[in-house]
Amino acid sequence: MVSLELPSAVMAFNQKPVRAVLLDISGVLKNCVDGKDVAIKGSVDAVNRLKASGMPVRFCTNETTTTRSALVKKLQAIGFKVEEDEVFPPAPATCLILKQRGLRPHLLIHPALEPDFKGMEQKDPNCVVIGDAQESFSYQNMNAAFQTLIALDKPVLISMGQGKYYSEDNKLVLDVGAYKAALEYACGIQAEVVGKPSQAFFLSVLSSMNAKPEETVMVGDDIESDVGGAQKCGMRGVLVRTGKYRPSDEQHPKVKPDSIVDNLAQAVDILLKTK
Amino acid sequence: MSKNSVRCVLVDLSGTIHIDDTEIPGSLDALERLRKSDVNIKFVTNTTKESKRVLHERLCQLGFTIAADEIFTSLTAARKLIEQKNVRPLLMVDDKALEDFEGIPRENPNAVVVGLAPDKFDYNTMNAAFRLMLDGAPLIAIHKARYYKRKDGLALGPGPFVTALEYSTDRKAEVVGKPEAAFFLEAVKDFGCDAAQCVMIGDDARDDVGGAQKCGMKGVLVKTGKYRPGDENTIGPPPAHVANDFAAAVDFILSSLIV
């Protein structure tokens, strides 16, 4: 490995021991270019090096435009060594909550995600679940979700993530958070968030590897959901300058990352250097 | 006329003097009585769909004697704001409303204007608006209603879609319709009178009465249109007066406020 001279500010997140790592997927491992997934330079190798070092790694994503199994297959196809039980998207966590609380969802989700909700009772809905529906965020579909909510005595809206936007084909596009905010405003309610930055979501991922928040680092390209969310849980949050990253993120009014790195490869270099 | 005498009356349209194609009984005569008193009259309405011409034609067909320039709508206010800012808008408004924006340059847009336009709230257009805003384009909301009543039930208004863009850009829209103070003040600007000399009559406690009273006007709530019992208790301060309908509101103004 090349020896690296890194500025001390970048190293800050590594002062205390790191015993587990959470990685965001979109914008950290891969980008979407011309409708195709492309590994971000150095990321395949970075994941391999991290795993080879014996560090427990989990992939913590708000991806809701595809099922977990399809997501894992896509990652494997572009070279990542990832297994399904290491990947934590919001849909399986949402199904668990729906079952526990006897909720029957009206789904406003991407058609490709529907198999993850197979088997959930959807007749006579008593809540609305939204994900990143992309083109399915039409007025008609939003209106149908609204009409379901407003007809309930106590409207329950579950939002899989609350991201503001993300990068697709080198363009920024609206994320589910925009549509969550729209339905909240229309009904005068607050949604429950499943996925990042929900504390319960982060903690359930940590418990899968018996990791403590104060010993864990989260690496992501979303200054609020990834970095801010992880920090609120007691983890360290590292921002990468890939994916949807914008220079203005470094002056975010509320969130100050423990470190900002160029990409995942650099974050892993730092992690392994002092291990 | 004394200093505090009312010199200008603002009148809401739908739910106050008519509902769809029906006059609210007594409104035609009441308007004539009001006109005899020599006060200035302006009809003010939140519309995102119907152009001023369409509204005017409907009122004429109902028998009202109203000049087109007596109508001040949220579309008119949006147009004024666009001209003031000298911007080229991406117009997310209903096709029927486009005639109120005739002559406004729209190529290579650098502003976003949102009305009620179900056909234009698709994901791609919303993304186009979002990216314009990231490049610094201002967001102008014709109004921010949460929902409205349609024949098949409640339906989303423009407010939720404005909120979506606000959330993802961390920016706030400039709202131009009722209950914004700027809207009421712009409507009476040509009359050169103080807000205290104006009274607003409408069926919406929050948007008509509350909005007018916030900018120093008096508000009269009518119990027609969307009024529901108890609405007068939902705003503070309460309406200056609550009247059964527009005719009773006019009688109150003529007998008590023009002195």
UniProtKB/TrEMBL annotation, chain A:
Its EC number is 3.6.1.1. GO terms for molecular function: inorganic diphosphate phosphatase activity; metal ion binding; phosphatase activity. GO terms for cellular component: cytosol; nucleus. Signal peptide: none annotated. It is found in: Cytoplasm; Nucleus. Pfam families: Hydrolase_6, Hydrolase_like. Keywords: Cytoplasm, Hydrolase, Magnesium, Metal-binding, Nucleus. It is an enzyme of class 3 (hydrolase). Its cofactor is Mg(2+). It catalyses: diphosphate + H2O = 2 phosphate + H(+). InterPro entries: HAD-like_sf, HAD-SF_hydro_IIA, HAD_sf, LHPP/HDHD2. Belongs to the HAD-like hydrolase superfamily. Phosphatase that hydrolyzes imidodiphosphate, 3-phosphohistidine and 6-phospholysine. Has broad substrate specificity and can also hydrolyze inorganic diphosphate, but with lower efficiency. This is Phospholysine phosphohistidine inorganic pyrophosphate phosphatase. It comes from Littorina saxatilis.
UniProtKB/TrEMBL annotation, chain B:
Residues 1-82 form the STAS domain. Its cofactor is Mg(2+). Gene3D superfamilies: HAD superfamily/HAD-like. The keyword Translocase does not apply. GO terms for cellular component: cytoplasm. One of its GO terms (molecular function) is metal ion binding. SUPFAM superfamilies: HAD-like. Keywords: Magnesium, Metal-binding. NCBIfam families: HAD-SF-IIA, HAD-SF-IIA-hyp3. Belongs to the HAD-like hydrolase superfamily. This is Haloacid dehalogenase-like hydrolase domain-containing protein 2.
